[in-house]
Design goal:
single chain; 227 residues; mainly beta; Double-stranded beta-helix; six-stranded antiparallel sheet; 47% strand
Length: 227
């Protein structure tokens, strides 16, 4: 398998496959393909895993694209302006935790499963939902990033506080908690909401410079409403 990331504003990743190799993505993730690609859609991993994906913001059904001839190519694109990050999970045996909507596509050796936060309050009040996804296994994983990607490597015990919507993914060795912003003035006047995500090392963290949900809300607030 070879891949090339194309484009800058709304990029895509073009994956060239050997005969018999395949990639899978969520429903609607494919952008274009050459002749010689076979498409198959099913509830990857069984019914329970499929229902779990629904709660993480992904589609219940996954689509697998298999090369029926040498050098066939299939491409997958982001849904909003941003970036695509390739991650070789073969080099990360502990796996990665992903926020909902971050998964783009992966090789079949990559397994996606539901990952619950350690504290119920972290998911209930954190703004990104109670359920995250865990990606682990062998092979290449591609994730979507809103805006530009920012990578941090945290040392043991090192703490990074991030606006919850700007967290994309982090290694499973990183602890994840929700911290309430202190001070009524900061809560009502600061414009940052009630909570921050508290990430505690060791491990790699991937952030995004834009939270598209906040961007969409801001655009919606500027749309004139008829009386």
């Amino acid at each position: 398998m070879r891949f090339q990331i194309e484009g800058k504003t709304v990029p895509s990743v073009a994956v060239t496959l050997a005969r018999g190799e395949c990639m899978y993505t969520q429903k609607g993730g494919m952008t274009w393909q050459t002749d010689g690609i076979n498409m198959s859609t099913n509830a990857r991993g069984g019914v329970m895993k499929s229902l779990g994906r629904m709660f993480t913001g992904e589609s219940i059904f996954m689509t697998t694209y298999t090369a029926e001839r040498e050098g066939a190519t299939v491409a997958f694109a982001t849904t909003v302006p941003g970036a695509i990050m390739p991650i070789n999970l073969s080099e990360i045996p502990q796996g990665m935790l992903l926020q909902k909507g971050a998964f783009l596509c992966a090789e079949p050796g990559v397994n996606l499963s539901v990952a619950f936060t350690k504290k119920f309050s972290a998911g209930l009040f954190g703004g990104e939902g109670f359920i995250l996804q865990k990606a682990e296994g062998m092979g290449m994983l591609f994730i979507e990033v809103d805006g530009d990607p920012i990578e941090k490597v945290l040392q043991p015990g090192e703490i990074l506080k991030v606006d919850t919507g700007n967290v994309v993914a982090f290694e499973s060795t990183v602890s994840y908690e929700i911290e309430t912003i202190k001070g009524l003035g900061n809560i009502f006047l600061g414009g940052e909401g009630l909570f921050l995500t508290r990430l505690i090392g060791p491990g790699k963290v991937i952030l995004q410079s834009q939270n598209f949900g906040d961007f969409a809300s801001r655009v919606a607030s500027l749309i004139p409403r008829s009386n």
